[in-house]
Every structure is written in C-alpha cells, then in structure tokens.
Amino acid sequence: MIDRRFISAVLILAAIALASQILLWLTRPRPDPDQFSGPPRSGYTLENFTLNALDDSGKLALTVSGPRLARHAGDGSIHIASPDYVMVDSVGNPWVGTSTSAWVNKDGSIMRMEGDVRMERTPSAGVKAATITTSELTARPKDRTIQTDARTQIAEPGSILRGTGMRGDLNTKALELLSDVHNTFEPSRRRTR
Known about the structure:
about 50% strand; mainly beta; lipopolysaccharide transport protein A fold; 11 strands; six-stranded antiparallel barrel; 1 helix
C-alpha cells in the first residue's frame, strides 16, 4: 500500500509545478504585433487617376489627377506622385497647379505639395492672371487657403513679387508675402500717336 506522506509529497510537488508554470506564463514578454520595418504599406494604389474633393457645402473644392496615388492603411493619408490639381475659389475661378509630389491627410482638409510647386490663376472678368512658384505649399482645399514658409514668387501682369513665406485666401483673392519682399515692375508700353 502507498504511504499517505508519499501521496501528499507528490500532490504538493504537482501544485508547485503548476504554480510555477502559471507564473512563468503570466510574466513572459509579449511579442510585438508588428515587426515590419520600412515605409508604410499602402492600403491601395491607383494609377492614372482623377480625384474630386468637395467642400462642406458639397461644392467642388479640389480636383487632383496624376500617374500614381497610394493610400496608407495605417494613418489613412494619401501620397501622390507628380500631381496636377485644380483648386477653385468660392465663385468657381480655377487655380491650376503642379508639383513633384503631394500628401493629403485622412479627411482631405490638408494637402501639402512639395518640389517645384506652381499654381496659376486663370484670368476672367475682374480677375487678373497670377502665377505662384515655390518649393513647398500647404493648402486647405475646404477653406480655400494656401500658405508656405519657403521662398515664393508671385507674378501678375506688370509686376513680380518675391519674398519669404506667403499666405493666401483664394476666396478673397488675397495673397500676402510675409518677409523679405521685393517687387519688380515691368514698364508699361508708351502710347504711340
């Protein structure tokens, strides 16, 4: 017959072994869920696309087209290669632009254009042509505002303004250079009689 002390010793050792296993399981380091290193992966990509964005009232605020668009699943942002874009003011006057690349946040409220940014306002009744050139530009398409801290040139018929930093409100057609502003006026042609 088996001795009670032996059975008690076996049960105590089994309880200690079970408690040790539970303690080891609770204190083990957890593996990181995402071990990927490198650029964020795209949620989807588009080639030769056109994207229309509307403002809060449902009016067209921005049209972007280009050879490649990549939406990143992690933060919902959009990266665009060589975009062509058209922003319109509140009465529908277009600003047509290009840049090397662009980034748009998840809700489409901010668009950052980078590398050889050029925007041209098409002349119409009461609106002069204007061309903005800079190295980077941040636009808020829904508010129809633009801004940059970089060197900027604004060319209109008869004058060229150069400065550092710019703010613009496309609705009021106001463009403001912030510092180190220089202006070049083109002489008007003399009238011949």
